[in-house]
Amino acid sequence: MSAKQTSPRPQSAADPYFPTHGDVRYHVHRYELTLDYRPAPNRLAGAARLTCLTGPDPLADVVLDFADFRITRVLVDGRTVRWTHRAGKLRLRPARPLRPGAAFTVEVHYSGNPRPVRSEWGTLGWEELEDGSLVASQPIGAPSWYPCNDRPADKAAYQMSITAPSPYAVVANGRLLTRTTRASSTTWVYEQPAPTASYLATVQVGQYQQLQISAGPVPQTVYAPARLIGSCVHDFAHQPAMMSLFVDLFGPYPFGEYAVVVTDEELDVPVEAQGLSTFGANHVDGRRGSERLVAHELAHQWFGNSVTVADWRHIWLNEGFAKYAEWLWSERSGGRDAAAHAAMAHAKLKALPQDLVLADPGRSLMFDDRLYQRGGLVLHALRGVLGEGPFFALFREWADAHRHAVVTTADFTSLAQHHSSRPLHAFFTEWLYVGTLPPLL
Ligand SMILES: [Zn+2]
User: Fold this and answer.
1) Could you tell me the distance, in angstroms and rounded to a whole number, from the CA of residue 121 to the centre of ligand 1?
2) How many angstroms separate the alpha carbon of residue 293 from the centre of ligand 1?
3) How far is the CA of 34 from the centre of ligand 1 (A)?
4) pLDDT tens by residue, 3-36
5) Which domain holds residue 265?
6) For 273-296, what is the mean pLDDT?
7) Distance from C-alpha of 156 to C-alpha of 304, rounded to nearest angstrom
8) pTM of the model
9) Ligand 1: distance of its center to the CA of 168 in Å?
10) CATH number at residue 59
11) Do the beta carbons of residue 135 and residue 114 sit within 8 Å?
């Protein structure tokens, strides 16, 4: 697979929904995380090495988002620097400002008991389980376990080396390079070379067994507690067919592999990470009761993970596409067609308050179910306007033109216009920029 390397779009301002997260003055190009995790005391010790690039201005200080860990050592370009750490910000002051366009490295050594970030959507980031841990960071949980430039547009490659007690399996983003057991601990080294947003980096630790559900062309593996393996064999049996369908519809799978982790505990919703998704024990019932969610999480690998929002205002480009992928899987696998799903979603939304503006829902509504439903609906309405051929060509071109890059709603509407002979301005205005629900024609 040829990964087109697109540099992140220069951003001049902070994310309007999370103005205190991220620093637009520099870019992290690669994270190397060396972690040691002990599940029983929930103790994490780590070293993070970041390879970075300054922007167009000299940089007098480097600001990272990072939770309340005990920090023992901080280096910039191999030299110790002055630093402060308060209110979730680690601020480093090199002896001299870093030159514009200069490459530099940051190294942070730390330890502590990781705790999730509390938010209006529940807990985010590193979370201790009964027996292990998970990481699900969308949108702002990443600083709960490593120092980062926490904004979705700042994508980087990741290498992670995680040591844990040997009975535990450790699953992280990308390909497993090595697994080495010494005494009672095992070190797992993973590499994710594709540009990855900080919220999509993850580590999962648990007493999991491994179930390979496809050897190729995209290797697909499920990690689950022994008691759930039988149900997983049945519940994820359609995932290889979903993968083939989505490759047909959206173009090549963007990463080297796909892993699913099923935790031993219940989760509110499954969550996507780069090349990986996490499901709760409650999403596996041996009857494929959550199959639409299997499709939803897989679709995020294209829409959200490869094609990533430039900032969180554009979240419908993640969730609307993943929702529509659910409907497409249903349609193509002998279930209800997308038109029937759209009609049901439309009836449901009609009965609810119509104050949600898809292209800028505001922070408090960014995970509102109406955003998911209306996001799927606008795509279905567009399918009706463009016709089958141009609509699916647009879907595929969207995934291809912005592969491993970041996007805005305006990028989508302008690409859609290229696939339409009639002006789409009025169509997009009523679907994306106005709260009132348009009729579904
Ligand atoms: Zn989703």
Assistant:
1) 14
2) 8
3) 29
4) 344 444 445 578 999 999 999 999 999 999 999 9
5) 208-301
6) 98
7) 15
8) 0.96
9) 28
10) 2.60.40.1730
11) no
